[in-house]
Amino acid sequence: MIIGLTGRNGSGKGAVADYFVSRGCNATSLSDELRAWLRARGSEPTRDNLIAGGLQIRTEGGGGVLASLALQRIAREGGDWVVDSVRNPMEVEVLRERPDFVLLDVQADVQTRFQRVMARARGGDAVDFEQFLRQEQAELAPSDKAAQQLLATAALADVVVHNDGSLQALHEALAGVWSRAAAGPDAVGSSPGGSLSDNDNDNDNDNARNKP
Q: Are 116 and 54 in contact (CB under 8 A)?
């Protein structure tokens, strides 16, 4: 089984990933693949560099290149996996080559997400609300289809996770998602686009694993 996570910055994807790791999943992130690619070229993985680098690697290697790298690792190591930071529809297309793939879109209010980003104070994150919104806008629906396409990717989700409440409430909602995912993709939803929606909730202490 592969559970993919998409969502905007600060939505709490790391908290969701942590939950599935606690249920026995291995974890990887398409952002980690991109960070390694940037470092190999001498670039710091700031948020702006991640956006620009993601565009470059997808332009050179195809829109699903990061997902292909992740699938290669998953095939080598086996087991169940949670894959964070799915950001382009072509990545979803590659991951859906696995019939046991399920995509979750993690959502939270913009002010909640901004406060989480400020609290984690990770290098490359926005330093004020204006910069936060500027960075987000660059990720939502740029004209270049090789760039991050968060809106189009979210539209392909099998489950929407609303992450605005307590960590306990999030875990309770994810328990239901986990049981359905374990039963197979047909139990989660027969078609993309949010066929099931869970009123899940937030991690007030959004942690360092929350990917950009």
A: no
Residue 29 β-bridge partners:
84
d(CA 98, CA 139): 26
Length of the chain, please?
212
- Which structural domains are found in the chain, ordered by start? 2-198 (3.40.50.300)
pLDDT average, residue stretch 25-54: 89
Q: What is the DSSP letter of 193?
A: T
Distances (CA, A) of 70 to 107, 176, 208: 23, 26, 21
Q: What pLDDT, in 10s, does the model give residues 41-99?
A: 999 888 788 888 888 988 898 889 999 989 999 999 999 999 999 999 999 999 999 99
Cα distance between residue 69 and residue 65, in whole Å: 6
Residue 208's contacts (CB-CB under 8 Å, 6 or more residues apart) are 14, 120, 122
For every residue of 117-139, DSSP letters joined together read: HHHH--TTS-SSHHHHHHHHHHH
SS3 of residue 12 by DSSP: coil
